[in-house]
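Supplementary Methods S3. Input chains for the assembly prediction are listed below.
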Amino acid sequence: MARMKFLCDSERCIECNGCVTACKNEHEVPWGVNRRRVVTLEDGVPGERSISVACMHCTDAPCAAVCPVDCFYTTDDGIVLHDKDLCIGCGYCFYACPFGAPQYPQQEAFGVRGKMDKCTFCAGGPEGKDNSDEERQKYGKNRIAEGKLPLCAEMCATKALLAGDGDMVADIYRERVTKRSTRPQSWGWLTAYQEDV
Amino acid sequence: MRRHIVRASALAALVTLITGCGVTVYEPGVYKGEKDPLLSMHAKPEHKAQLQERFTKGQAER
Amino acid sequence: MKLVKKQTQEPGKSAAATGGGLLGRTVDRRTFLRGTGLAAGGAAVATTLSMRMMQRADAATGEAASGDVVTKRSVCTHCSVGCGVIAEVQNGVWTGQEPDFDSPFNMGAHCAKGAAVREHGHGDKRLKYPMKLVGGKWQRVSWDDALDEIGDKLLAIREQHSPDSVYWLGSAKFSNEQSYLFRKFAAMWGTNNLDHQARICHSTTVAGVANTWGYGAMTNSYNDMHLSKTMFFIGSNAAEAHPVAMQHVMRSKESGGKLIVADPRFTRTAAHADQFMRLRSGTDVPLIWGMLWHIFQNGWEDKEYIAQRVFGMEDIRAEVAKWTPEVVQDVTGVPPEQVKLAAQTMAENKPGTIVWCMGGTQHTVGNNNTRAYCVLQLALGNVGMAGGGANIFRGHDNVQGATDFGVLADSLPGYYGLAAGAWKHWCNVWDLDYEWVKSRFDQASYEEGKEQLPAMELRGITVSRWIDGVLEPAENMAQKAPIKAMFMWGHAPNSQTRGFEMKKAMGLLDLLVIVDPYPTHSAVMNDRTDGVFLLPAATQFETYGSVTASNRSIQWREKIMEPLFESLPDHVIMYKFAKKLGFAEQLTKHIQVNGEEPLIEDIVREYNRGMWTIGYTGQSPERLKLHLENKHTFNTTTLKAEGGPCDGEYYGLPWPCWGTPEMKHPGSPNLYDTSKTVAEGGMPFRANFGVEYQGKTLLSEGSWSKGSEIEDGYPEFTADMLKQLGWWGDLTPEEQKAAEGKNWKTDLSGGIQRVAIKHGCAPYGNGKARCIVWNFPDPVPLHREPLYTSRHDLVEKYPTYEDRKRFWRLPTRYMSIQAKDYSKDYPLIHTSGRLVEYEGGGEETRSNKWLAELQQDMFAEINPADANNLGVKDGQWIWLEGPEGGKIKVKAMVTRRVAKGVVFTPYHFGGWFDGQDLKDKYPEDTAPWVRGEPANNAFTYGYDSVTAMQETKASLCKITPA
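Predicted structure tokens for the full assembly:
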């Protein structure tokens, strides 16, 4: 069984922020906390490319490795979750994460750090009952428990963002790349072939 | 013989230390929080299959 | 969290060498808008929103959360793609939103706005109850009191002046039924002074395209683009304006389709293009003629298609011959190789489709632009086939429906127009005495152009000019008196130009009534102290009815929740007003009214009986609801149901859906497609312009629909024609009775249409598309410089029009404005456009916290070269001023997206005026999270020569650091 993965096909991503607001909607994420955001490179010039980024649910998660209170755990297929009751808000996971996934809700204007919050792959957290009020209030909705997949990917405008069984995600992407073979859009083409697109 | 006894009692002391006497030993890297009911539900193949079906329904090109 | 790679430095230059700081450095939009929550809007929010925990909608915790989940299906309220929305409702509260995978339009997808629609159920910033402005303060009033006072005032104005002194500005967000009722309402009141967003959006499209080949709507569909081998986007930034449409574009690209984008800006759509052409704002016609120059030069045109189905191409050739590559480069700025490449790509990769939006329509020559686009496609033989066509992306969710139902100053529902015959047809449908309806209008006649027409038959004032309807002296207007009362019903004010003059006009009104779910910029932008009413309308999620997507498909919306607070659905408000004003009985003569709510299904059945021109007659409520239940059975490329209860029908029964519902026409997915029989959804071009012009036939030669018994061109069907053909006997006795002396548009039995189709013929004839529109100011589309142009040297060769004494009832200037050269003092081209997070005037979307967080500041895009010349740094406050004195204070965003000499502003902001934040002028708790200067305060006079569309894509400005 493959690991659960996100993949954002940057050839299709149009920076519409549908994934961002879908997440806000589903989990009532407060202003200032960005579980998911779209990053754009070369904004406004040829070569502009966007990619949607949230927690990557790493196999060997640096956040889990550095946490002093070990509040992280993983499902058997790689969804990285954490326990807000244990979290001390030290911010080390933010240092460790290469993607900036950990967020800290601001409590006051001077940015006092609260409990860490991050993308849960829509799988909630370790609260007694799945999709209980407590779980929803702390972690947001638990779609995985309902047999659904992350809403950001399910609502992506162009189906650029995919989330699910890593093998199935890869299959879709591979098919697209094969179909696209008539044009240079893969990374490094310009370098390799010195061609003007 | 004496070395044996010393070694054995050291070993016994160590074992007692680790296993009993109410002393907590910190185990780094092991999750310390509550058990998530999702884990057991999610580990079942039926649940995985349900998610795969959902993926095909929603994210594969129709 | 700023994970953005900055623009890389020029090799060899260090940061110090480039002057350090932010001068000249470009930045992306995300970084620019410091979204940490501490920005102006954010700080206020941080204190009001609870931060510590995730929170569900307040009412959903506790007992409500344990209620059963009911699923309701609706359609997004934002754009014309028509994405399906699935709402989960518990105890009447909208607690969840799920993707609508079954919808063939979006297959679950949403953009930022669609993914955030559940916020409408929160209603943080909604107008909660009717309010009245008294002594500069907002006071709560009851519906009854408000209606009484407003109604009395309206009746007094009617008495003292005329019915034309009340302007009923309606909405593209009305459902079809509400749109139809609104048009009927204005007729009962007795005025043609009504309009909606289509005027300032695609009015030039509808006029230009309808006058070319019959109907002015999108010919194919978003889905059909899967089959396009070339997609030419000119003046359309679909990645931000129609994001989910890009899903279909991407599928096409992955099947080998080529994407060409022409735009003054390197837009997010251009970023995905195979070819990008940067053209000077307002030079669309030269670019298209430039492409056609190469096409004719190389013999790439489809000669057989032109001979059979197109009229007037020779006149086009004569004009195109003037647009040589060098001339095109001088005027547009696009180099010859690029123009040729685009033309060649389109010629060699067919079928190809063309897409345009506001970039092409919002000009004084908008109707020339839209016709040029059509002519290009006709020359290539791309119209009337899958993968081809003119795919016009409409704006608001139901602007197509509102246009079709005539929320317009120049037509009754169904584009019948305003002549006596049109009125008689509709009075027939409404079962009202024509003389009574006539008596409701100002009985005088007025001169306009070469005609003298009674007020009832004279097209009204457009929304783009309503302020002149207030400001202009009565003797200059083609109506009795200026506008005294203004209704802004589901329409923002900041989408129209000349904001400073609008403020003045609002001050002069006797009465301003805003009917909207939000107070809107109208509530705060003026300095009035009295005589303003705010009436809370419910959104489309709080009622039900049908909505027409850009591809002419009609979707049924279910009601998600009860109207919030004291808001009411628009059709209920209309009924209440009709009661007060004394024509409720006539308005709903054959429409059942439950309490004060006209029954939606009855409204559908009424317009099914009258909308013969465009085929809104076959889509009964039952058929539409069946489609809602079976969305998943429709193929996502052809939109045809394969099996299931709707087998053989096209999703949403796209109009024209000919005949009565009993006839069960499947809808028409691609217009003008002769490869299908008419009964299967095909048809030829409409014979709309007569049978002959200057001795040459206007009927098609050698081209007819599959299965047509007349294997030739033929005119539109009348009762007499059926008799001549010997088909009269095919009508039933009832049909014969109704059809006697009528034609396909006025026969209420639908028999003429049924019999024509039975014999394989299209009811509207089989004509040629025409490249020259002899009843337009420019029969052959010509290039004319914008009124405010940066190239005044070209004005001599490409001048604008003569001033007009009366045009849509008002004096309209052209030449007298263009005569002066403003480009020295206002050296930058000013153009506007959309952002993906916001929509329209923006009050609704800027009141949605999930969207507002993503775009917190109004800004203007400035090229680094211009920024350096002006001493402006990225993020700095600047004043942007137009040549008419309108000015706005915004932040500078330095980017290479715009070329040197071009400035871009998004038009969605409001709640500021002349540098002041008007937050405190809003009623309590209704100020949107994000406010900013309206771009249109700095935009200028300029109106399309046929439809009076405003010129918001090509103006001038100057910038100074603030």
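Chain C touches chain A through 75 residues (CB under 8 Å). The longest strand of chain C covers residues 887-894.
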